[in-house]
Design brief:
Elements lengths: L3 E17 L8 E13 L4 E6 L20 H14 L5 H14 L3 H4 L6 E7 L6 H13 L4 E5 L9 H16 L4 E5 L16 H13 L4 E3 L7 H10 L3 E4 L6 H9 L5 E2 L8 H14 L3 E2 L7 H14 L5 E4 L7 H4 L13 E3 L12 H7 E2 L2
Parallel strand pairs: 4-5, 4-11, 5-6, 6-7, 7-8, 8-9, 9-10
Antiparallel strand pairs: 1-2, 1-13, 2-3, 4-12
Helix pairs in contact: 1-2, 4-5, 6-7, 8-9, 9-10
Pfam families: MR_MLE_C
GO molecular function: hydro-lyase activity; isomerase activity; magnesium ion binding
Protein name: Isomerase
């Protein structure tokens, strides 16, 4: 039996120069933080996870120490209780699955069902650029073999002058590339940054945008309404041929149950690093599959989060694509994946997961030591 011997949490910060100005945040980001969770068993094997800050976890280590590391369902229950009382500590779930794979000698995608050892990727942009620059980025993504690209609309804090200006970017990309790329749009209406107090779109706002996106052949529109407006999302889904996507910041599994039961979305986008971990979201992925709803996770954390979401998607689902955050130079692979020994490489738009036991994480210990915050 493999028993949990230790759990260690460390925080790291990479300075960003030039800054990263995210479309969903009016304040340029001058650093990128990563939390690393390591769980060791009594035979010296180590599992690694990353994601949220692990707020509230300190003082609860004893609930895991000495337990069989493979009891992921038991550990999920404890983490769900910690989330209710404190914060989101799902990076530990990722680390436990990485350790589980190393104990069994199997990659996580196979432990989860083994449907595939790879996922198709879409390039997910994050910066609001001038129209010509966005067209150049789209051409670059198509040239690198990505089959699809997600374009961000500006939030109220973002930068462009409303959704009509955002549409001109889409029109320019379509004019230059035709149908070479499938296009998705993130409307940035489901949630707000703390400093942004603007109201989200109304249903009629969202419907007007949807009509324009239909004209441009957009595959999905993401977060077009406030995350709690299930009735509005269902009505929008029924009123337009554009697929409606959401759920990236939904916190509770019962909320996904309700989204599925209400037929509010065509596409579910939870992130294992932010909600439920792999253990919780495999329930959601299977539930979505049974209801013929696509499951394709959000993955704007770091390369460890991308890998964890990829293993779940490959092992269980048949997602059309997986999000690959990538928008150089401000959001380069080297920045996104700074905790890793090497950035995740795609092959003509595919991420290959291979046969390495666990999640396939190889940490850059020197970089982590140089970027560590605190003791």
């Amino acid at each position: 039996m493999s028993r949990i011997a230790s759990i260690a949490v460390s925080h790291h910060r990479l300075p960003l120069d030039p800054p990263f100005k995210a479309s969903w945040d009016g304040r340029p980001r001058t650093h990128f933080d990563a939390t690393i969770v390591r769980v060791r068993d009594d035979e010296g094997r180590e599992g690694v996870g990353s994601g949220d800050l692990m707020l509230g976890f300190a003082g609860h280590e004893d609930l895991f120490l000495g337990e069989d590391a493979r009891r992921v369902e038991r550990h999920y229950e404890v983490l769900s209780h910690i989330q209710f009382h404190y914060g989101r500590c799902w990076p530990l779930d990722l680390a436990l699955w990485d350790l589980f794979g190393k104990i069994t000698g199997e990659p996580v995608w196979r432990l989860l069902g083994g449907r595939a050892d790879r996922v198709r990727l879409y390039a997910s942009s994050g910066v609001l650029r001038e129209t010509a620059e966005m067209v150049e980025a789209a051409e670059r993504f198509a040239g690198e073999g990505f089959p699809a690209m997600k374009i961000r609309f500006s939030s109220s804090a973002g930068g462009r002058d409303g959704w009509r200006a955002d549409l001109k970017v889409l029109e320019a990309i379509r004019a230059r590339l035709g149908d070479k790329l499938d296009l998705m749009v993130d409307c940035n209406q489901g949630w707000r940054m703390p400093s942004d107090t603007a109201a989200p779109w109304t249903f009629k706002d969202a419907l007007a945008v949807a009509r324009e996106l239909e004209r441009l052949g957009v595959y999905w529109m993401e977060e077009p309404l406030h995350r709690a407006d299930r009735a509005g999302m269902r009505a929008l889904r029924e009123a337009t041929s554009v697929r409606i996507a959401g759920g990236e910041m939904t916190r509770e599994l019962h909320e996904f149950r309700d989204l599925i039961a209400d037929r509010a979305l065509d596409i579910l986008q939870p992130d294992v690093a932010l909600v439920g971990g792999i253990t919780g979201l495999r329930r959601v992925a299977l539930m979505a599959r049974e209801h013929n709803i696509a499951f394709t996770p959000h993955s704007w954390t770091n390369g460890i989060g991308v890998l964890a979401n990829a293993h779940l998607t490959a092992g269980i689902g048949e997602a059309p694509w997986l999000e690959f955050p990538y928008d150089p130079p401000e959001w380069s692979l080297a920045r996104r994946d700074f905790p890793l020994r090497a950035s995740l490489a795609h092959a003509d738009g595919w991420l290959l997961l291979g046969e390495v036991p666990g999640l396939g994480i190889a940490l850059d210990e020197d970089r982590l030591a140089a970027t560590r915050l605190g003791p």
